[in-house]
Design goal:
Protocatechuate 3,4-Dioxygenase, subunit A; mainly beta; binds fe (ii) ion; 5-stranded mixed beta sheet; globular
């Protein structure tokens, strides 16, 4: 059956559900496995033409993204500490002002046209991945709830199994403490999805490590 443009737009609208209507439940195991968190409402509907693991430059643009450039790197592992090679790792996030490049983001903050917003890579033979991006801005959900800066992650294993989570920054303690999504994770396991940005002199930027145990 053919799907008309109107029907497909309806489908897209259905996907654009605000945070408050989403199940915010985190899936937490008792070991060091990374807690799973909601996909959120801003997974891209339209993927940027430039799709790589450097979100700070959009192909053919003259300017780089605004904000602090950072590197996020780590490895993808099984719960038995076996490294997973060839896993697809996707990230998406708000630009430095806190706005997603997404049609249904209600945030009025200015969008940075030079920020790629989404990117992907594959883990290498040792299970490592890396992204160059910018530190995202936080954004309001309600009058009393501002999401802390965070990066969404989706891992697709070679067997097709998907894993979804979000990464936070230790320096955003105040917003982290009040975040309705992060706080669904029991305190002892929250550190598994919080990274500390540490200055790397050779890369000339701060780097955050995030190992993802499925
Ligand atoms: Fe988000």
């Amino acid at each position: 059956m053919m799907i008309s443009r109107r029907d497909s737009l309806k489908q897209i609208k259905r996907l654009a559900i605000p945070y408050l209507t989403l199940p915010l439940i985190a899936v937490v195991k008792t070991d060091n496995s990374t807690p799973q968190q909601t996909l959120g409402p801003f997974y891209p509907l339209i993927f940027p033409l430039d799709e790589d693991n450097d979100l700070t430059w959009v192909k053919d643009h003259k300017k780089e993204a605004l904000g602090e450039k950072i590197m996020i790197l780590g490895k993808v592992l099984t719960s038995n500490y076996q490294r997973i090679k060839n896993a697809k790792v996707e990230i998406w996030q708000a630009c430095s002002s806190g706005r997603y490049n997404h049609e249904y983001d209600p945030n009025q903050a200015p969008i940075d046209p030079n920020f790629q917003g989404w990117g992907w890579t594959k883990t290498d033979t040792k299970g490592y991945y890396a992204f160059k991006t910018i530190k995202p801005g936080g954004y309001p959900v309600t009058k009393n709830w501002k999401r802390p800066p965070h990066i969404h992650f989706k891992i697709t294993q070679p067997n097709g199994k998907e894993f979804i989570t979000q990464l936070y920054f230790s320096e955003e303690e105040e917003l982290n403490q009040k975040d309705k999504i992060l706080q669904r994770i029991p305190k002892p396991q929250q550190s598994l999805v919080i990274t500390e940005l540490v200055k790397d002199e050779s890369l000339k930027m701060r780097v955050g490590q995030f190992n993802i145990m499925l």
